[in-house]
Amino acid sequence: MIKHIRNTSLLILTVGLTACVSPPRNVDAEIPLVTPSSFVSSELVPSQYWSILDNPLETQFTYQDYLVQMSAPYESALGTHCRLLTFSQDSTIAGTRVTCGKPSNQGNKSLWFLTKDLSNTQSKVTLK
User: Fold this and answer.
1) Residue ranges for the chain with pLDDT beneath 50
2) Which of 95, 113, 96, 114 has the alpha carbon at shortest distance from 104?
3) What does residue 54 show for φ and ψ, rounded to 5 degrees?
4) Which pLDDT score, from 0 to 100, does residue 74 have?
5) pLDDT given at position 88
6) Measured distance CA(52)–CA(47) in Å, rounded
7) Coil, helix or strand for 97?
8) pLDDT score recorded for residue 40
9) Torsions phi, psi for 112 (to 5 deg)
């Protein structure tokens, strides 16, 4: 009886370890989930802010009564360069928005857009 339990336990352990060392299946996507041409924007950022947004060393600028702090640039899933903008007024955060730049025909400059809100926590602040 003990020999049977030991053999069964050894078999279960062997099968369990074999499953752990086998590699997962290799999956190749045939249909892309997003395409670069599907970049959807909501509103164009005024051109006077484009050079500030293009410069990765810039961290903030003022807009009307807001101090706008910018995150470091990052690349989105669509391959565009984006920055998180945090709007504050009188040391109180009024909200956040994401802006992304699309390459333009104007040399090294990008056309910057405020993206559509993805959550309720983003503010309705716009740059006009």
Assistant:
1) 37-38
2) 113
3) -70, -25
4) 92
5) 92
6) 10
7) strand
8) 54
9) -100, 135
Name the residue type at position 9: S
CB neighbourhood size of 97 (10 A) = 23
Q: What pLDDT is attached to residue 110?
A: 83
Q: What is the distance of C-alpha 100 from the center of its chain? A: 10
b/e 26-58 (16+ beta carbons within 10 angstroms → b): eeeeeeeeeeeeeeebeeebeeebbebbbeeee
End-to-end Cα spacing for the chain: 82
Give the pLDDT score at 38: 45
Query: What's the burial of 94, exposed, middle or buried (CB within 10 Å: 0-12/13-18/19+)?
Result: middle
- Computed over its alpha carbons, how large is the radius of gyration of the chain? 26
Q: Which residue has the tokens 């802010």?
A: 49
Report the alpha-carbon distance of residue 50 to residue 89 in Å, rounded: 22
For residue 71, what are its two tokens?
A: 């995150």
Residue 59, CA atoms < 13 Å, CB-side half-sphere? 0
**How long is the chain?**
128
> Other CB atoms closer than 10 Å to residue 79's CB: what's the count?
13
